[in-house]
Amino acid sequence: MPLRLAILCAALILGVTPADAAPRMYNAQSARLANGMMVVVIPVHRTPALTHMVWYKAGAGEEPFGVSGTAHFMEHLMFKGTPDMAPGAFSTTIQRMGGNDNAFTSWDYTAYYQTVPKERLGQVMKMEAGRMNDLTPKLNDILSERQVVIEERRQTTDGDPGAMLRERMNNVLFPNHPYGRPILGWMSEMQTLKWVDALAFYKKWYAPNNAILVISGDTTLEEVMPLAQATYGALPAEPVPSRVRLVSPKLEGEVSVTMAREDVHQPQWLREVRVPSTRQNRDVSIRLELLEDLLGGATGRLYQELVVKAKIATSVGVGYSPNAIDDGTWVAYGTPAPGVSTEKLGAAMNAQMALAGKNGFTATEVKAAIARLQDAAVYARDSLAGPAMSIGYMLATGATLDDIETWPTRLESLTAKDAQDVLNTYVLNQNGVTGTLLPKGGK
Amino acid sequence: MKRIILIVLALCAFTSAAYAKVLDIQALTTPKGIRVWLVEDHTLPVLALSFAFRSAAATDPVNKQGVSQLLSNTLDEGAGDIKAREYQGLLRDNAIDLGFDSSRDYFSGDVRTLLRHQDAALKLLKLALMSPRFDAEAVERMKQANLSRIRSSLDDPSWIGARIMNDRIYEGHPYALNVGGTLSGMAALNAEDLRAARARHFARGQLVVGIAGDIKKEDALRIVDQVFGDLPATVKKAAISESVMPAFGKPIFYYRNQPQTNLSMAWPGIDVHDPDYYAAVVMDYIFGGGGFSSRLMDEVREKHGLTYGIYSSMANLVHASRYMAGGSMLPKNVAPTIAMVKKIANDMLTTDVTDDELQAAKDYLTGSMPLRFSSSTNISGALVSLQLNNRPVTALDDFNGKINAVTPADIKRAAARIFKTQPVIVLVGAKPDGLDVETVTTLPNVTGGK
Lengths: 443, 450
Prior knowledge:
The structure holds two protein chains of two kinds. By secondary structure, chain A is of the alpha+beta class. Chain A contains 17 helices and eleven strands.
């Protein structure tokens, strides 16, 4: 590496690595390449291995109307070869290192990852950088892969009543917004996807300045930067449009979606609302995370009241999805006990949530919840791929490293009233979509 | 000349690697005679303890299928003077991950705790093992959760397929039963049944323990005796016979309204202690276990685009070995896929694998082994698995040598032992085109005894 470049790298490392002393979630190190690509390293020195990930800040949310499934199809085509890499050879090369690789697509991002012995990092970066601009899939591979993604949809969605219900609920919860479309695509559109659709997406969004490199494992930013410069750093920055999403109108009232099918044997009930994501409002977001812990779990009030005491459900829970460019989602769900209707369970769930909104939580409950969440943060580092995954999800959806690292500390100042307020404002006083899964002709 | 240099280099690499242990395992026996393998790891203030008893669901009576699973669900629902809610609260508030599980052969458990909550974690584990309450309310609640799970599974084609497949390939053997229980059997279980199952499984003589984390040897020995030392030394074990694979018949078909058909195929397998075991491991990687490096995936997905995924795997139990493969595809593609699988299977036993395929398989299997140990629970769990398989403490270090010794002739021999038999085939979902099938309309071991 030329000396001048080395000095530049050192300056970048020193300039960005945080120096304050507060306890941090991951102690991640970060820098930026000259072409704008962000680099994040989470040192975890348990085994001589690492997980290397590249996150593109583009997913199904960036697809034009009429070609749903393009982002995910593109993800599959990324394994179909470059001038330096035969079709299919990417994964087999990683496997010969003893490693594993895969990729996934969501509405807001597309990510590629490999877990390999640490000494292979340079080679893996060269391979990943090599397919950022130079993909050359052959026509027969494109056509056969289109059939593969169609079979993926048939296998994961079209045969699964619960998955079909959630897909339909998304349509209703996010009208006129890409979150309302399936990531895999609508079948009729998937069947007509063409290479030009994927290529247009690839050219528009796949660029180093629209990508985040995240590595967790047995390495350091100092070791990574020269390799990153030599591989990703050699790629030119490209003009990338900003992510402009259509505005999804708010629901004018509470909406219900019922899916009734002959193959359903166990009814389900769930209710989803749109809530702020971390990018939109990190203060509300962390309060919703606290609320999720307070209401959920085997000792939470929903389980205790509805499963243990009233015995009208066999399982209940809540879930908050904070990682989104646009709105996040909050879901409450339950499985009714035999003989209990989904209406009765839904009414009881809503009543319990309303009661919590009215009476709030005790300071003792909140203190215990905060301690639990902080303790769980220690386990976040007891894994190889885990830290890279968690950080990638957040950075790719517009959160900052500071949002992530200060999370355990920011929890400390939260109060019972904070949890009660977000419950009332963002969950209870919002219109949502209630979904029920029923046997056809059943109750 | 080039080739010789490569071999010398490869030897150097192998020799230097051979001196570094994969994991620094200490094989210990406690004063009370309990076997424990330990890996000290001081990178995080975390302790992971895994254990398993060599007795589990294979001893569940036919009319009480699922009792071992219900035991695993109910142990942490109150113990000693601590009732369910308080017990769960102590786990949660101290960030203790505690879980139990019952497979056919082994009743197992894992606990992960931060060092500063270690005493609470071990106390709760010991209480759960020694004096579970089995309060009527908690037992009923866990039964209802299981019944609900069974009803939900009736919507899952791969679960449906497994019910039919297990009934056929372990015919007449306890392995044919449903570990998760049946709708009528689960509903009839009570606390007495749980006590009986506990008494069958829990004894020091059939226990192995694995520990990984921030702990020293003396402390590890002490805590193992503290938690498990008061269990009975031995318990009378019912003999379980070996299960022999029955002859194949027509493909068995169960209709379900879905666009695809789920295909599963089973052949006789090769036992973990068989001299051909490592050859079978390499064979499986090349045949269908190796993802995109495998012949099944290359042919059925990559070349023909017939499926999202097709895989094979070795299904090794203590008293049975099977070899499985499967995927899902449109009904018109089922017969072509079966033909492709059979052709690839036949190639494995008639023709040598290529040098490149063999080396790729060895590179992956040897290179990936150390990457598995990336969390404290991965490590403690592996320490238990090795002991359950009666492997020596050097097994991980010996693994590469055994894999690298496999030859093309070994692979053909292993393949012949598996694929010379016609597979049992189970199809669930859309009716496959052009196949003569035996249609079944009821599922074994779901509603009642069978």
